């Protein structure tokens, strides 16, 4: 099987170091009218730091760019069991990373993926604003694992089976989505569950 996996909030957590980056100083630098003093993961009911902080897209872009050059960005850690599960799955399946990070992060993304996942990830792409469903189709993917509702809906509408990653209910931006209306979307909470589900299907 060809399995496509997202990076941020699926393989690793970008949000946790981003929250620390903001709380430990960035809120003083940015152009915030009423800055949130103690940003928490629970604030992310949408996966957009710009909307949460009520800043313009341009300011959000600048913030992510500064964050990516800071030591905090180097502290993106794999999620629990992600490394072991990807390694195990790669013995039987082809695993491809696909992220909608901006293109200037390609080098850093490759470096990070190699560092933690090595050969278990056979390829890595940044979708560059294109639909992930299009990538899945071009690569003949059988399954996509992603935390963003828009991506899994798009993929399922294009006939691609999708796992919506809940991260043990810590991915607050997708918690209220009702996947029961979609045949091709299943919710998964962690990597152990993904591994069990794929292995039980003996694909
Ligand atoms: Mg993601």
SSE blueprint and pairings:
Blueprint (H helix, E strand, L loop, with lengths): L1 E4 L6 E2 L1 H15 L19 H5 L3 H12 L8 E2 L3 H9 L3 E6 L6 H12 L5 E4 L5 H7 L4 E4 L2 H9 L3 E5 L19 E4 L2 H11 L2
The structure holds magnesium ion.
Shape: globular
Spatial extent as radius of gyration: 17 Å
CATH topology of the largest domain: Rossmann fold
The small molecules bound here are: magnesium ion
Helix content: 25-40%
Could you provide a short overview of the structure?
The chain is of the alpha/beta class. Helix content is 39%, strand content 15%.
Q: Could you walk me through the main structural features you see in this protein, from its secondary elements to its overall organization?
A:
The chain is of the alpha/beta class and 203 residues long. The chain folds into two domains: 2-13 and 78-201, HAD superfamily/HAD-like (Rossmann fold), CATH 3.40.50; 15-75. Helix content is 39%, strand content 15%. It is built from eight helices and eight strands; from the N terminus they run E-E-H-H-H-E-H-E-H-E-H-E-H-E-E-H. The protein has helices at residues 15-29, 49-53, 57-68, 82-90, 106-117, 132-138, 149-157, 191-201; strands at residues 2-5, 12-13, 77-78, 94-99, 123-126, 143-146, 161-165, 185-188. The strands form two sheets. Strands 5-4-1-6-7-8 form a six-stranded parallel beta sheet, sandwiched between helices. Strands 2-3 form a two-stranded antiparallel sheet. Helix 5 links the parallel strand 4 and strand 5 (123-126). Helix 4 (82-90) runs parallel beside helix 8 and helix 6 packs across helix 7 (149-157). It is globular and about 55 Å long. The termini are close together. The mean pLDDT is 94. The chain binds magnesium ion. Residues 6, 8-10, 147-148 line the site of magnesium ion (MG).
